[in-house]
Amino acid sequence: MIYDTDILIWVQRGNEKAAKLIEKDEEKHLSIQSYMELLQGAKNKTHHKYIKDFVYDFEFSILPLTENVGHRALIYVEEYALSSNMRAGDAIIAATAVENNMILVSGNVKHFKVVKELQLKAFKP
User: Fold this and answer.
1) Which CATH architecture has domain 2-122?
2) pTM of this prediction?
3) Could you tell me the mean pLDDT of each successive run of 10 residues in the chain, 125 residues long?
4) Distance (Å, whole) CA 110 – CA 84
């Protein structure tokens, strides 16, 4: 599975349900977009290191922004930005999941539900 940024934020806040979801998954993936969002949200160097260690310790595979992911994300923004307020970051995350044929786990289902070909699993903290 591929995890939306919010899931890792829930884990950092001590949400056991989110932590258990990640722990039981043998193949954990993040879009490079989610990884950048996590790092960007760091409050200081200590928190920045914590995020990097967390991603490493839990053995997340970081999925790159490929040409196909970028193209698909552009299509999502073109199709859904006006009607559903699709943001570039969410488009990249959704496109990464679709291009890699993975289920996206997110607590922000409303951000992604317009993408019909996306396999989406809702997380409720």
Assistant:
1) 3-Layer(aba) Sandwich (3.40)
2) 0.95
3) 96 94 95 97 95 94 98 98 95 98 96 96 95
4) 9
